[in-house]
Structure formats: C-alpha cells, structure tokens
Amino acid sequence: MARILGKPSVLVIGGYDVANMPDIGYGHHRGGLSRWVSRRAMKWATRLSTFSAFSREEAVHNAGIEPERITTIHLGVPDAFGELPQNSRARMALTVGNVDRSNLKRKGHEAFVRTAALMPDVSFVIAGNWADDAIDYLRSIATPNVTFTGRLSDEELNDYYRKASVYVQASRHEGFGLSVAEAMLAGSVPVVTRAGSLPEVVGDFAVFVDTADPKALASAIENALTRPNEDRAAIRQRILEQFPPARRAELLEQLIEPLISRRTAAFARLQTHVTS
C-alpha cells in the first residue's frame, strides 16, 4: 500500500519473519506462500529495521535482503522495577513464553520441565498462556516442583521476576529474548543457550549451556543459584545501559526522519513544477 500511495515505509522484521528452522517447524522461510509474501514485503519496503544483529544476519541469509538496507536497532526494555528488588530470592528457576507445541523445542519448555526432576529442591515455573495441548503433555512429564501459571498480568509476571533466583532460556531460536532482559532487570541470573541473539542480550553475565540436555541445564542452574547477590546489580545494569527505550526511540527517529525529509522535498519540487 505504501508503494501504491508513493509513500516511504519502514518495516520492522525479525524472529519468525526471517527464520528458517524446519526441524522445529519455525519460520516463514521454510517455503511456500508465507516465504514468498515475507520476501515481497521486505523487498518492497523502503527501509528495514531489525532488533538484533542475529536477525539481521538471518534476513540477509534466508530472505536475500541486501545488508545495507537493514538497520539494527535493539529493543528498548522498560524498567518496571526502579531498583534491584530487596526481597530474599527463592530457589526458583523461571522461564516465560506461550505454552504451545512449537515452544516445547524452540524455547526449551520440555527440557526445562525434565530438568526439574533432577532438582527436586528447586521450584520450576513456566509462566505463559496455554495455547494448545502442549500443557497436557508437559503436565504428564512434570514432577511436583513444577508450576504452570497460565496467562499472567504484567504485575503478576513482574512479581515472579522479583522472586526468581534464576531465569532459564533453553532456546533453539531467539530473535531477541525480551523476557531474558526483563528478568535481568529484576536481578535474575540468566541461564541460556547460545541460540540466536541470546549472547547479544546477556553479554558476559549469563551461565551458558551448549545443549538443552536436562543434566547440562541442571548443572548450569545450580551454578547460577550460587552466584552472590553482588552479581545481580551488574546483571541489572547490563540491561539498563545496553537497551534503554530512549535509545531505540532516538535511533528510529534517525532512520525515519530522512525518509520524511526526502518526501517533503520531492513534494515541494513537484508543486513548484506544477505552478510554473
């Protein structure tokens, strides 16, 4: 529509838009009509913006987009906490995401639940909407120390972030990892794979796992549980410094303003030509 109306457009892309992971059934670029539509939309946009260097690489590799057309502007992560929560931390491992068949592997929900069986003295919480029958499967393999919250309000979710000692993201793919960043703002120690953009978000402040194998996850979670409280302030500061919402707003304005200026100048030239 922007092309038809002769207007510039900026399209924000990333995540499912540019992924191609047939082994877990994820991404428009696995083929078919969705791949064609996704590529056309990206090619017809005047400029493209994505929220991680990883998603930019996927757009180039999977969608054939010229790198110079894509500007990486990280998400801005609002601080819902104001300061590092002072409450004592529970021996709790938290993960957040819709509970659906795709996320059993993509976000590592199955591995997370199976890890709980190896750590009976730790509470495992999956916070997220129950989207399909995946919840029945996870309940069938869960031990008593696993809680499935269902959909939460922002206030309820933030309360879990404040309580959790550890945040786990055992993903196969992440376009950014917003929930990880939110948990880090609350001072949770992240335990993550090196999938997608997760290393971009956590920097040097995570306990990394090379596989979502439950034994490897259990070892990493135990490591994270022993981190001193002093580390939590540095974990929080990482997100405050790297992903402020004001920076995203500023960079988006820098991306959009030249397009508006060029359109305004072109319209002015057209008016001059018509009146002359």
Give an overview in words:
The chain has a six-stranded parallel sheet, sandwiched between helices. Strands 1-2-3 form a three-stranded parallel sheet, with helices on one face. Helix 5 (109-116) crosses helix 10 and helix 8 (178-185) crosses helix 11 (229-242). It has two domains: 1-73, no CATH class; 90-239, Glycogen Phosphorylase B (Rossmann fold, 3-Layer(aba) Sandwich), CATH 3.40.50. The chain is built from twelve helices and nine strands. It is α/β, with parallel strands linked by helices and 276 residues long. Helix content is 47%, strand content 14%. The chain has helices spanning 2-5, 33-44, 53-63, 101-106, 109-116, 134-141, 154-163, 178-185, 198-202, 214-225, 229-242, 245-275; strands spanning 10-13, 47-50, 70-72, 90-96, 123-127, 146-150, 164-169, 189-192, 207-208. It is globular, with a radius of gyration of 21 Å.
Morphology call: globular
Strand content: 5-15%
The N- and C-terminal alpha carbons lie at a distance of: 31 Å
Low-confidence stretches: none
Structural class: alpha/beta
Report the mean per-residue pLDDT as an integer: 93
What count of helical segments does DSSP give?
12
| CATH fold group of the largest domain | Rossmann fold
What is the CATH architecture annotation of the largest domain? 3-Layer(aba) Sandwich
How many discrete structural domains?
2
CATH homologous group name of the largest domain: Glycogen Phosphorylase B
**CATH hierarchy, class of the largest domain:** Alpha Beta
H/E element string?
HEHEHEEHHEHEHEHEHEHHH
- Main sheet: strands, sense, barrel: 6 strands, parallel
How do the strands line up in the largest sheet?
Answer: 6-5-4-7-8-9
Give the fraction of residues assigned to helices. 40-55%
DSSP summary, beta strand count: 9
Q: Gyration radius, to the nearest Å? A: 21 Å
